[in-house]
Design brief:
With 342 residues, the chain is α+β, with helices and mostly antiparallel strands. It is 38% helix and 18% strand. The chain has 11 helices and 11 strands. It has helices at residues 3-19, 48-53, 59-79, 90-95, 119-135, 160-170, 174-178, 180-183, 214-220, 225-238, 275-296; strands spanning 25-27, 30-32, 109-115, 140-141, 149-158, 187-195, 199-206, 252-258, 308-309, 317-321, 329-333. The strands form 3 sheets. The protein has a 5-stranded antiparallel beta sheet. Strands 5-3-10-11 form a 4-stranded antiparallel beta sheet. Strands 1-2 form a two-stranded antiparallel ribbon. It is globular. The two termini are 40 Å apart. 35% of the residues are buried. Residues 1-29 and 31-39 have low confidence and may be disordered.
């Protein structure tokens, strides 16, 4: 590493020390922080920071660092003797128990661009959800038809009128943004369960030529999922709308389950946490990850079973309404494409 590159890298790293807290958000009691070792950028686009850092280090290494570090961190918290229970999503808990909460309505309107996973990834999630239910039968599962990856959260927790105002403001840009993945293709690989005390997700890493012929590998994945999010942020701003996401982290994930009760880890005698049960749950999650690595991370299947390209089968979905748990309404759907893996 030459002096100029070293100096640039240290600048990026030092800015992280100053601004790391800005990249953290507390959502329903759960903290989301950028653990990749990057900083805020000097630009107003928050997705620039990782890409600036990746002038010295590949995107995949930074996002892998974030994913592995967060899982290590959360595993330690779950296994700690001080662990006092899951972080329950009280809104979801009320929605799935209408008899105890008659008339309850989730009034948090949001506006987003979602990516829908292709059929083979939906099938994988279905298999994983069934396995998780065997160990934690009280889990709330994201319906397969509602699975989504949030490419860009424009805003959240607004009234219907506020959302409609933003929709009208962005109308002229909708087709361009929803169709954006047709000409800007970002491949995701290496599925793994990411988890904390609130939820379980199936996460991916940006591809870096894995599974491709040597002559194609060098240039095939230069445009990553993080570039996509950066560009979508810029397009949104160019439409005259300020982006107000809850958090910005280098993650690409599908939430597949949430904890809505302590029942599966409770001690029937003390009504507290049964730490043997939580140890068993963590052990099961780690066993699944070992199997995912063995089955889907090998070079010969990274182009098919273990990966997907954002926009495959369906373009981006411009979604509005009370969509926190996969609901809401599609205002516009982009143009998708099919890939031939044969």
């Amino acid at each position: 590493m030459n002096g100029r590159v070293t100096e640039g890298y240290l600048k990026v790293e030092s800015r992280y020390q100053i601004f790391a807290e800005v990249m953290s958000r507390a959502v329903d009691g759960n903290v989301f922080a950028d653990l990749s070792g990057t900083s805020n950028s000097t630009t107003d686009n928050p997705y620039d920071a990782l890409l600036e850092a990746c002038e010295q280090e590949p995107v995949i290494r930074k996002t892998s660092t974030h994913r592995e570090t967060r899982n290590d961190q959360q595993r330690s918290r779950l296994l700690s003797p001080e662990f006092s229970g899951f972080i329950i999503d009280e809104v979801l808990h009320k929605l799935v128990n209408p008899e105890a909460n008659p008339g309850y309505v989730d009034s948090r309107n949001c506006l987003v661009f979602w990516a829908r996973p292709p059929q083979r990834i939906r099938q994988l999630v279905d298999t994983l959800q069934k396995r998780l239910l065997e160990f934690a039968p009280s889990l709330w599962l994201m319906p397969i038809g509602c699975l989504h990856m949030t490419v860009l959260e424009i805003t959240h927790s607004k009234t219907e009128a506020q959302i409609e105002h933003l929709v009208n403001t962005m109308e002229s840009k909708l087709s361009e943004m929803a169709d954006f993945t047709y000409g800007h293709r970002a491949r995701l690989v290496k599925p793994m369960l990411s988890y904390d005390a609130a939820a379980i997700a199936l996460s991916f890493l940006p591809a870096a030529g894995e599974g491709l012929p040597e002559e194609k590998a060098a240039d095939a994945d230069t445009y990553t999922y993080h570039h996509l999010r950066k560009d979508m942020y810029g397009l949104c701003k160019s439409a005259g709308v300020e982006v107000a996401s809850r958090y910005v982290v280098p993650s690409s994930h599908l939430t597949i389950a949430r904890f809505i009760t302590q029942k599966d880890i409770s001690n029937k005698v003390s009504n507290g946490v049964d730490h043997e049960k939580i140890q068993g749950l963590v052990r099961e999650l780690e066993e699944i990850n070992t199997e995912l690595r063995a089955k889907y991370w090998s070079e010969d299947i990274l182009t098919s079973e273990g990966s997907w390209t954002v926009g495959e089968e369906k373009g981006l979905v411009y979604r509005k309404g009370t969509l926190w748990y996969g609901g809401g309404h599609s205002h516009h759907e982009g143009k998708g494409f099919n890939l031939d893996y044969d």
